[in-house]
C-alpha cells in the first residue's frame, strides 16, 4: 500500500510538471535552461577568443623576422650618390642616342641607358628594403658635342669605378656591398668602352 501510494504521489508530481511546462508556468525550469544556455554561450565565446589569441601568437612567432639592416652612414651616402649618378648616366645616354653625330656615340649612349636603368632599379629595390630614401629629382642635362660627352664619360666612369670598388671593400651592409661589387664590373666595362669610343673621335 505504501509503495502504491508513493507511485501515485510521484505520478501526480510528474503530471503537474508536465502541465506547468505546457502552459509556461514552470518558470524555474525555463530560467534554469536560459541560464545554462547563456553560460554555455559565454564559455564557447571565451574559448573562441582564447583560440584566436593563441593562433595570433603562433602566427607572430612563425612570421619571418624583418630583414635586419647593418647600414652605416657611409653606405647610405654611397647609395644616394650612386642613385644620383645613375640617373645622370641615363639622362645623358638618352641625349647621346638622340643627338650624337657618331654611330659609336649613339651606341654608347644606348648602352648607358640600358645598363644604368637596370642598376638603378636594383638599387631602388635595396633602398626600399632598407628604408633609405633615394633622390628622385630628374637631373638637368644639356648636350654639347660627341667629344665633350665622351670626355665626360671617361672622367665620370673613372671616378665611379673607384667609389664602387671602395664600397665593395669597406661597406658595412652585405647587400649594398654586393650591389657595389657587381656594378663595379659593369662600370669597368663602360670605362673601357668609353675610352675606345673617345679614341675614335680624335
Give an account of the 3D structure.
The chain folds into two domains: 2-62, no CATH class; 73-200, Ferritin, CATH 1.20.1260.10. It contains six helices and no strands. The chain is mostly helical and 202 residues long. Mean pLDDT is 79; it is low at 1-11, 17-40 and 57-68. 81% of the residues lie in helices and 0% in strands.
List the helices and strands and how they pair.
Elements: H1 2-22, H2 27-62, H3 73-99, H4 103-130, H5 146-170, H6 174-200
Helicity, as a percent range: over 70%
- What is the CATH architecture descriptor of the largest domain? Up-down Bundle
Annotation field: number of helices = 6
Shape: elongated
Mean pLDDT: 79
Q: Tell me what portion of residues adopts beta-strand conformation.
A: under 5%
Low-confidence stretches: 1-11, 17-40, 57-68
What's the level 1 CATH class of the largest domain?
A: Mainly Alpha
Q: What's a quick, concise take on this entry?
A:
The chain has 202 residues and is an all-alpha fold.
Features:
single chain; 6 helices; 202 residues; 81% helix; Ferritin; 2 domains; mainly alpha
